[in-house]
Amino acid sequence: MKAIIGLGNPGREYERTRHNVGFMVLDRLAQNWEINNYSSKFQGAFAEKFVGTEKVILLKPQTYMNLSGQAVASLASFYKLEPQDLLVVYDDLDLAVGRIRIRARGSSGGHNGIKSIIGHLGSEFFPRLKMGIGRPPVGRSAASYVLEPFAKDEEEGLDAMTEQACEAIELWLLKGTTEAMNRFNAKS
């Protein structure tokens, strides 16, 4: 069993913001896999599907970004999932819009959602898929920038990046982290 966790903030006001790119990827994946709705479980929006013979869980924590670890730990505990069975999808300021990067593990890099997950799991050894949102313009704080929607001229890059992330997730499920890193980190 594997779980794919997309990070974001609940509520209409956050729907298309940079911080919610993890939710956007899970929604695209659900659409591609013909999952029509989420239920409410593990402090999040929850869905499941068999991909081949493997049960795959989609989770969008509804705890707000900074408390994402609560939902992830609840899910992992219930299903007895190891950290390496989780793939966390989230925004990254250090990547340009349109770029993705897969990592097998790592620190939070200052991302509060990842910091919360590491704290609740007691491990940083979980795969993650970083989605590029770019750096804020000079003079604008990162905290306000991540809560802004993508600019119109970024929409095409966002759409391509979201679809590429879905392809990377499917490869991760079939072939694992190293294979996904080799293919998509070089490509992006």
UniProtKB/TrEMBL annotation:
Residues carrying the site annotation Stabilizes the basic form of H active site to accept a proton: D91
CDD domains per record: PTH
The enzyme's E.C. designation: 3.1.1.29
Enzyme class: hydrolase
GO biological process entries: protein quality control for misfolded or incompletely synthesized proteins; rescue of stalled ribosome
Database matches in PROSITE patterns: PEPT_TRNA_HYDROL_1, PEPT_TRNA_HYDROL_2
Site (Discriminates between blocked and unblocked aminoacyl-tRNA): N9
Catalytic activity: an N-acyl-L-alpha-aminoacyl-tRNA + H2O = an N-acyl-L-amino acid + a tRNA + H(+)
Binding positions for tRNA per the UniProt entry: Y14, Y64, N66, N112
Catalytic residue list: H19
Any Gene Ontology CC annotation: cytoplasm
Alphabetically ordered keywords of this record: Cytoplasm, Hydrolase, RNA-binding, tRNA-binding
Summary of subunit composition and partner proteins: Monomer.
Function: Hydrolyzes ribosome-free peptidyl-tRNAs (with 1 or more amino acids incorporated), which drop off the ribosome during protein synthesis, or as a result of ribosome stalling.
Protein name: Peptidyl-tRNA hydrolase
Origin species: Heliorestis convoluta
